[in-house]
Amino acid sequence: MKSRTNKNTSRLTRRNFIRASAAAGVAALVLPTNRMFAAGSDKIRVGLIGCGGRGRYDTTNCLNAAENVELVAMGDIFKERLEDCRDSLAKKLLDKVSVTDDMCFTGWDAYKTVLACDEVDLVILTEPPYFRPEHLRAAVEAGKHVFMEKPVAVDPAGVRSVIESSQLADEKKLTIVAGTQSRRMAHLMEGINRIHDGAIGQILGGQCVRIGGGMLTWREPMRVRQPEWSDMEWQLRRWLFLTWLSGDFIVEQHVHNLDVVNWAMDAHPVQCFGLGGRQVRTGPEYGNIYDHFAIEYEYPNGARIEYMGAQIDGCSGRSDERFAGTKGSAYLDSGNAIIKGQNPFTYDGPQPSPVIKQHADQIAAIRQGKYLNEGKRIAESTMMCIMGRMSAYTGRALKWDWAMNASKLDLSPAKHEFGDLPMRPVAIPGQTQLI
User: Fold this and answer.
1) How many angstroms separate the CA atoms of 338 and 346, rounded?
2) Does 149 share its domain with 193?
3) Separation CA 191–CA 333 (nearest Å)
4) Is residue 425 situated within a structural domain?
5) Residue 419: CA atoms inside 13 Å, Cβ hemisphere, count?
6) Using CA atoms, how far apart are residues 329 and 204, in angstroms rounded to an integer?
7) In terms of DSSP bridges, do strands 203-212 and 318-325 run parallel, antiparallel, or are they unpaired?
């Protein structure tokens, strides 16, 4: 297979991209979206940007979510990752994958080339989270519908960009769906609807806990840096353990749980205070992220939610959310929604696949011309995680309004190219500065 490598954006930075694209976005507002879809009939053609494991997973679910959906283009920074992904999807999905050699693109600007394809109606964005803001902006300006994985940024600058792009998507009547499948779990939907209807009264406080394994063998073959890999290449291949690429695990993975908290509270927090550190993942192969956090979030009604998260092998595992109210309490996890008190309830209904439903909902919205835009919502849940990390990294309490509107934290590297990129030091509470 031949893939097209593009080199002309080797020095592109996110700051320059967002600055330059703002002007282009104004012109794009007068352009129509790619095409109109007849209800349930027209083929939806998909482009994948980011061909790692999550890209394969989301693309498989998307293509299986509805009839007449086809993968036609692919892009990734690394050629071998694209080739492996293409071969794997073609074997599993047969006639739903029709990606020709000239629709495969690699290199730093591969995403741009996928988005330039008139054949693409919907793009799936699954490169590491750092890239999400610029990829979303480019996709919306290109008139594409977007499915993007969570989280959607790693710093406040990225969150602000995602919110702006989501507003632009509204103006262009484009759909955006985020990979927060908990929002489509039937038991959580019913349980939280009841919470919103007052089943437990006013929420006074709660807990959010997620304790899991250390992921010490993640991408084991790439754990040892190869001599030919530059700093940038090694960090991209080990992106899960680099704050600038993943946001740390509270952002990259525990956004699922904290998004459920925002959902139940029907609000975002107004301030937080956190601590954290690393006890186990201390070697250089684990980058500069933490392995445990504890954050207190305060909501507009004064309720405080205590979050505790860790990725450490050998600990008792747990993943749930609990809320205490004036009329009762609620317990939520990946399979249960239980309310106790004046209005008891236990969900025992059907459990359709939420990861299929998220794609089916988007495909239906595209075909029927219905509004569906989850961009701002997932940006706010991502910001909740980011501000918790910022507080824990520095040991400083901080307010939502400051983090969202005044923080100048931007984790972008100076340039996007393979070469030297010293790893930022591990944050030390009380010493690391709040930016």
Assistant:
1) 5
2) no
3) 11
4) no
5) 7
6) 10
7) antiparallel
